[in-house]
Amino acid sequence: MRRAAFGIGVVLVATMTLASHAQQPQIPVKAGVTAAPDTVRIGDPFRVTVGIRAPRGATIEFPRTTDSTSAVQSLDPVAVRTSADTTAAEQYADYRVAAWDIGSQPVKLADAIVRYNGAERHIPLTGGAVVVRSLLPADTAQRKPKPPRALFEFNPFPWWLVALIAAAIIAIGLLIWWWIRRRRKPVVRVIVDPFTRAEAEFTRIEALALLEAGERGRYVTLMVEVLRDYLAARYAEASLSLTSTELQRSMREKTFVPTERLTRLLTEADLIKFARRPVSSERARELGREARAIVGYEHTASQPAPPQEAAA
User: Of 90, 144, 164, 175, which residue is least crowded by CB atoms under 10 Å?
Assistant: First the structure.
């Protein structure tokens, strides 16, 4: 019973559909689709023209673009132009398109809609096609592409590589820690006795053999500079920025410094250094000995007296 009732329902629906189509007035329409040129290269633009002729007073609605899922794609919106014929409604729609696949490609368009005297008719726009040629040259070598490779499978790192990386990180960390700790250690400054340093400098200048090379003025200047360095290390008043006259005045009250000998030496050394006063090798050697002697005198005089032994 259920199957019989279902069959009767299907027949009734079909009969009602045919009756409704039969009641709709048929609008006489002529339509055509052309592509120019009929053979193009892939990506080259070409035109597809759709022409529809309907009774006078009818309105025609064209699709705006081609089907977006097809290989033939619209480049611009549709351009509609009307014929000068006054006996009928005749319009043409121009589509500027391009094909993106080779071979014979159909032009897929949605239905055009014609309305006349309250009636509406959908016009299928089929039949347009174009042949698309490839831009690639002919493959005369008949090469065949390689089959696709298998998907890359990620393999976990071996344990020894992980251990090696961890050991390298630990070693770098320890090296940085050692370097920071080493930088934080206070620098131990070695304090050199001014007299010992002065004697070493005198010996170094003598070893240069400046007098034998004719550099008498340079010899005197270097020996006096050692003397001034010694006095600056021993007394805060004997700064190296002082002139010779200022140094003489600051040393007048120092009982351990032979000021008269120091004055004579500095005066003659300034004449040799600044006034280019000529000096013989013998006199230059005497001035060097005097500078060394003044240092020795000050060092001996400034040392505390040795303790006297108790009488037996």
Answer: 144
